[in-house]
Amino acid sequence: MGGRPAAAAPAAIELRGISKAFGAVQANRDINLTVPKGTIHGIIGENGAGKSTLMSILYGFYKPDAGEILVGGRAITIADSQTAIRAGIGMVFQHFKLVQNFTVLENVILGVEDGALLRPSLSKARGVLKQLAADYQLSVDPDETVENLSVGHQQRVEILKALYRQADILILDEPTGVLTPAEADHLFRILEGLKAEGKTIILITHKLREIMEITDNVSVMRRGEMVASVKTSETSPEQLAELMVGRKVLLNVDKTPARPQAPVLEVRDLTMRDAEGVERLRGISLDIRAGEILGIAGVSGNGQTQLLEILGGYPEKGAKVGGDVRMNGAPLPLSGSGCDAGQRRRDGVGHIPEDRQVEGLIMDFTAWENVAFGWHDAPEFNKGWLMDNDAIRRDAQAKMERFDVRPRDCHLAARNFSGGNQQKIVVAREIERNPDLLLIGQPTRGVDIGAIEFIHKQIVALRDAGKAILLVSVELDEILALSDRVAVMFDGRIMGERLPGQTTTGELGLLMAGITDTDHTPAEAGIPPEVAHDLPQGRA
Amino acid sequence: MDKMPKWADVILTPLISLILAMGISALVILAIGESPWMALTTMVEGALGSSYGWGFTLYYATNFVFTGLAVMVAYHASLFNIGGEGQAAMGGLGVALVLLYLPLPHWAIALPVAMVGAAAFGAAWAFLPAFLQAKRGSHIVITTIMFNFIAAALLNYVLVNQLRPVGSMDPASARFPEATNLPALTDIAAAMGFDWGRNSPVNVTFLVALAACFLIWVLIWRTRLGYQIRAFGRSEPGAVYAGINPVTITVIAMLISGGLAGMMAINNVMGEAERLVLNAVEGAGFIGIAVALMGRNHPLGILLAALLFGFLYQGGGELALWTSIPRELIIVIQALVILFTGALDNMVRMPLERLFLTMRRTSRGAVK
Fold first, then answer.
1. Residue A362 is nearest to which of B3, B234, B245, comparing CB atoms?
2. Do A271 and A323 touch, CB atoms closer than 8 A?
3. Of A2, A198, A256, B315, which residue has the fewest beta carbons closer than 10 angstroms?
4. B241:A360 CB<8 A
5. How far does B244 lie from chain A, in Å, by closest CA?
6. Nearest 5°: phi and psi at B267?
7. Whole-angstrom distance, CA of residue B49 vs CA of residue B43
8. Which of B1, B243, B364 shows the shortest C-beta gap to A342?
9. At residue A146, what are phi and psi to the nearest 5 degrees?
10. Contact indicator for A459, A293 with CB cutoff of 8 Å
C-alpha cells in the first residue's frame, strides 16, 4: 500500500451510529466519528457530554446499544479491554492504574508476562523500554518504584504500558489535569513524536488551549451527541466554546478594578506539620483586604489544601499548627477547642471546599438537606429540639431558583445532579450567607463552561459587595481571570506575589515549579512563550 | 436510589427474599422426610393461631425491636454495633440492681426507673468500644464482640458470687419485689373489658417498644443530632468540614445504641423472668442485626421485621414441640431467612432494579 495517498487509507477508527443509554439517560446518541491515521484528534465537551462513555465503549468497558466500530477499516466487536488491546487501542486514564509499590518495569509487563517466570519478560521489557525512551523522549528509570515518581513520570509509565502492548491508537483522558505547565508541554512533545511515527492519538479534554495547541482535528460533543467535527486550523476557541455549550460564552470575566479596603484576614508565619511530622506549611504570610480576591496558584499538593483547612477551622488530625492568624483584627484560634469549623462559620468565614463530593456535600442527602450542611445550627433552620425542615426546604428552593440549579427539585439526592449543579448548590449555600471572608478551593473543577461562567460572576459580585476572598485553584487561567493579586505556592511557601496584569503564565509557571531565579527567562527554562497566548485579553 | 419505586425497594424486595428463604426451607424439610405444608401450618397455628401464641410472638418481637433499633442508630453513624448481646445482658444487670436495691412501691414508678437503669448499663457497656473507636481507631466490630464475652463472664460472676440468694443452687438473682412486676397486656385488656385469652409474656414493654420506634424516627430524621449522625455516617471528611465532631458523634451514637439494646431487659428480665437469670438475652442481640438489615434501618421496617422474627421464634418453638422436626432445623430456617433478607439482599435487588428500568424504558418508548 506504500504508493497510495494517505487520504485513501482506511481511518484508524471509525464509529458509525453509536448509541448507549444508562437507564433513562441517553449517554451517547447516534455518534459518528472518523479519526484518520497518524493524526491527533481532540474530543471536547462539557462534563457529562458523553466523552468518557464513548471512549469506554471504544475500550470495551461498555457495550453499545447500537452502532458499529471500525478499526483500520475492519468492523470489530470490542467485548472487553483485551479485545481493544489486541486491536491496537491503548488507553491512558485520568486516574492512573499503576501498582504503586511495583517498579516501572513490573508495571509495564503486568498482565502481559510471557510465562510463569518473570526474568525473561523483564529483560525483554527493559530493551523495549530503552528503545521507546530513545524514540519518543519517554525516559523513565525502569527500576524506580512508581510511588517515587512524579505525576508527570507516572503518566509516562502509562503511555509506555500502552506502547509496550503495541498500541497504534492511544486514547488519553484529560491527561493534563494533574500536570504542571512544563510537564504538560513535555507531554505534548511526546504526543507529537508519536504522531510523527504514525501513531493515532485521541485526546479527551475540556481545555480549549490544549485542543488549539496540539490537535489536527477536533470533535465537539454536547449532551451525548457529536455536534461538530472540524479541522483545528479552521476553528477558534470562541467557536468551540459556543459549540460546547450551545451558546456564546464569555471566556474572560467581566470585572471592574478592585477597591480594596481594610484588611479582613492577616496571616503571619503560618506553619503546619502533619501527624507524620512532614512540614506542609513553612511560614505563610498573606493579607486579604475587604473587596479583593487573592488568588493562590500552584500545582496541587503544595500546601494549599492544608492552608484552606486551617483557615476553615479543621486542620487535619494530629497536625501541629503555628503562627498567627487574625480576622478583622481578632486572633483566630488555630488549635484546641476554639478551632472548630462551626465556630469559624459563626465568625463569618464561608468555605467552598476543594472536593464537593467528599467534603462539600453529602452525596446521599437531598439537595435541601445539603443546603443546611454546615449551617444546621443556624437558628432559622431550627425550632427547639427539632430541625425546621419546611424552612430548610423553602430556603433550598429559593437558593436553587436564584442559582439556576437544574433540575429545580430540592428532594433529589445530591448525587443525581451533574457536577456543575452540585457545585452551584455548594456555592449558593456559602455565598448567600454573605461571609466576611470566603475561602474557595477549586471552584470549577469538573464543572461545565456554562456553570463556570455563572460561578465566576457570583464570586466577583461577592467581592464587589466588599468581602474578602481567598481563591485556590490549579487552573492558572481561572486564577488570572478572577484574582486581583496572585500568590504562587510551592512546597508550603509563598514563592511570590504578582499582579495578574503584569505577569505571564510563563513566569507563574516557573514560580509554580519552585524557581525564583529571575535570571531565567521562560524560554530558557523550557517553557515556550506561546503558552502565554491564552492569557485574558489585554493582560498578556 | 431512584432505580425503582420506593414500595418495590421497601416491600417487594424483602418479600421475595422471604419467599425464597421459605422455598429452600421447604426443600430442607422435604429432604428429612417431613411435610413442609404441615410445618408451615404448625408454625402459623402456634405463633398466630391463638392469643397465647400471639402473646409469645409479640413478646419476642419486643426484644427484637429494641436490639434492631440499637443496630440501626449505630448504622446511621456508619458504626456496626454487634455488641447488642452484651449490652442487653448488662441492661439486665442494671434492671436487677435497680429493682433489688431501690424501694419502688409500684410498677408505674419502677418502670421508668428500671428503664433508666437498663439504658445506663447498656450505654455504659457501649461506651468503651465507642471511645476506643473514636480516639484510637480500634475497630468497633472487634471491640463490641469482645465485650459480649466480657459481659457474659461478668454476669456469670455477679450472679454466682453476688446476686445469688443464700442457699440457692440456681445462678440467678432473687425474685424482684411483687409490686414492681409489669402488667401483662392480657391483664390490661381484661381491665379494659376485653377477654384476651390465656396468660402470655407480652407486657407493657411492647407499648414502650412502639414508642421507642417513633422516638428513634424523630431522633434520626427530625433532630439536629440525627442530622449530624447521618451526615457523619455518610462522609466523615464532610462532617469535619461541616463542624461536626467525629469523636462526639461516634460516642453519642454508640451510647444511644447501647442504651436501646440495654432497654430490652425491661421486657425479658423485668417483664417476663422477674429475676435475673444466666443467658437471659438468648441471642436477641444478634437477631437485632438481621432485623435492622431486613427493616432497611428504618423504625417501621424494624417493627415489621421484628414481628416476622417473633413469629419465627415462636413458630419454631411450636414446631419442635408438636412435630418430629428436630429443634436444630428451626435454626436452619431462621438462618435462611437472615441469609436471604440480609446477606443476599443484592441478589434479589439487582435483578429487580434491572426489571424496573426496562419496564420504565419500554413504557416511555410506548408514549413516544
1. B234
2. yes
3. A2
4. yes
5. 8
6. -75, -55
7. 9
8. B243
9. -60, -35
10. yes
Q: Which residues pair with A231 in a beta bridge?
A: A217
Q: Of B11, B57, B62, which Cα lies nearest the Cα of B210?
A: B62
Residue B361 has its nearest CB partner, among A24, A355, A358, at A24
Phi and psi at residue B335, in whole multiples of 5°? -65, -40
What sign does the CA torsion over A249, A251, A257, A262 have? positive
Number of other CB atoms surrounding residue B212 within 10 Å: 22
Rounded to two decimals, the ipTM of the complex is: 0.87
- The domain ranges of chain A are 6-245, 250-348+435-540, 361-432
- The domains found in chain B, sorted by start residue, are 59-310 (1.10.3470)
Computed on alpha carbons and rounded to an integer, the radius of gyration of chain A in Å comes to 25
Q: Which residue has the higher pLDDT, A87 or B1?
A: A87
What would the grid cell of residue A205 be? 479534554
Phi, psi of A165 (to 5 degrees): -85, 15
Query: In one letter, which amino acid is B105?
Result: P
Find all residues with CB under 8 Å of B308, minimum gap 6, and list them.
B18, B294, B337
Distance CA A160, CA A300 (A): 25
Q: Which three cell numbers stand for residue B190?
A: 381484661
Q: Do A367 and A411 meet the contact criterion of CB atoms below 8 Å apart? A: yes
∠ CA A165-A171-A175, nearest 5°, is 115
Q: Which residue of B has its CA nearest to A355?
A: B238
Is B350 in the A-facing interface, judged by CB distances under 8 Å? no
**Which grid coordinates belong to A526?**
523550557
In terms of Cα–Cα distance, which of B285, B284, B304, B286 is closest to B294?
B304
CATH of domain A250-348+435-540: 3.40.50.300
Tens digits of per-residue pLDDT, A7-39? 457 889 999 999 988 766 678 999 999 999 999
Q: Which of A463, A421, A432 is nearest to A258 (CA)?
A: A463
Does residue B240 belong to the interface with chain A, where contact is any CB pair within 8 Å? yes
Distance CA B126, CA B261 (A): 10
The residues, any chain, with a CB within 8 Å of residue B88's CB and separated by 6 or more, are B66, B67, B122, B261, B262, B264, B265, B281, B284, B285
Window from A22-26, A515-519, B73-77, B103-107 with minimum mean pLDDT: A515-519
What does DSSP assign to residue A188?
A: H
pLDDT grade for B149, boundaries at 50, 70 and 90: very high
Please report the DSSP string for A377-406 in residue order.
T-GGGEETTEE-HHHHHHHHHHHHHHTT-S
Task: Match 431467612 to its residue by C-alpha cell.
Answer: B337
Side-by-side strand order, sheet with A200-205: A89-92, A169-173, A200-205, A40-45, A217-222, A225-231
CA distance B356 to chain A (A): 10
Angle A529-A530-A535 from CA coordinates, rounded to 5°: 95
Query: What's the average model confidence in pLDDT over A117-144?
Result: 87
Name the CATH superfamily for A6-245.
P-loop containing nucleotide triphosphate hydrolases (3.40.50.300)
Give ∠ CA A127-A163-A60 in degrees, rounded to 5: 145
If pLDDT is split at 50, 70 and 90, which confidence band does B188 have? confident
Strand A217-222 to strand A330-331: parallel, antiparallel, or no bridges (unpaired)? unpaired
* Grid cell for residue A478: 481561572
Q: Which residue has the cell 442508630?
A: B73
Q: Whole-model pTM?
A: 0.78
Q: Count of residues for chain B?
A: 368
Q: What does the mean pLDDT of chain A come to?
A: 86
Nearest to B208 by CA among B252, B270, B258: B270
How far apart are the C-alpha atoms of A301 and A491, rounded to whole Å? 8
What is the sign, positive or negative, of the torsion defined by CA atoms of A351, A354, A355, A358? negative
Residues 6+ apart with CB under 8 A from A254: A457, A460
Asked whether the beta carbons of residue A389 and residue B222 sit closer than 8 angstroms, the reply is: yes
